[in-house]
Amino acid sequence: MVRVSGSGKELKRICWLIVAGLLGACTPAPEFTDATGQPVSLHHFAGKPLLVNYFAPWCAPCLREMPRLNALAEEGEIAVVAINYDPTTPAKLGQLATRYKIKVPLLIANEDAKLPFPRPSALPTSYLLDSEGKLKQTLIGELDPSNIEMLKATISRMSH
Where are the alpha helices (H) located in 5-160, listed in sequence order? Predict the structure, then answer.
């Protein structure tokens, strides 16, 4: 029979704390905040392709493409979120959604977010991620019906 000394128990406890810390570190910090102030992470959308669209209320092409993004999200094949390019508050996001009839979730990107795509240099910019959150395509400019058909074709190729 082996006796466990006090220092052995302490060592075991330290090992468990290290393991717990490492497991905790595997959970990424939420990348976004939604219009209700809740944290949202990209892994909430895992299992389905995701279109991340950067927009601003002062960007006319961004607002023109919103009904198309709403319709695309409604079809259900691709999850769609819109990120407000400018610093804002959750309350202002709610007001934007109402004013511009935006049905897709509006998000604020957190400053220290580790995203699989860069902050865009032009608006609107959309990033297509696969169901595992890997960047598959970057689309700069307004999404028109032909761009959206191309996105759908890309999605169907990814899922087969």
Answer: 6-26, 60-75, 90-100, 145-159
Q: Using CA atoms, how far apart are residues 56 and 84, in angstroms rounded to an integer?
A: 6
Complete DSSP assignment for 92-103:
HHHHHHHHHT--
User: Tokens 């709403």 identify what position?
Assistant: 70
Structure tokens at 86: 């400018």
* Structure confidence by residue, pLDDT tens digits, 80-138: 999 999 999 999 999 999 999 999 999 999 988 889 999 999 999 999 999 999 999 99
CB-based contacts of 113, cutoff 8 Å, min separation 6: 29, 31, 32
Distance between CA atoms of residues 89 and 131, nearest Å: 29
Q: Is the pTM of this model over 0.85?
A: no
Round to whole Å and give the CA distance between 89 and 27: 25
For 41-82, write each residue's pLDDT tens digit: 988 888 899 999 999 999 999 999 999 999 999 999 999 999
Per-residue exposure over 82-106, b if at least 16 CB sit within 10 Å of its own CB, e if not = bbbbeebeeebbeebbeeeebebbb
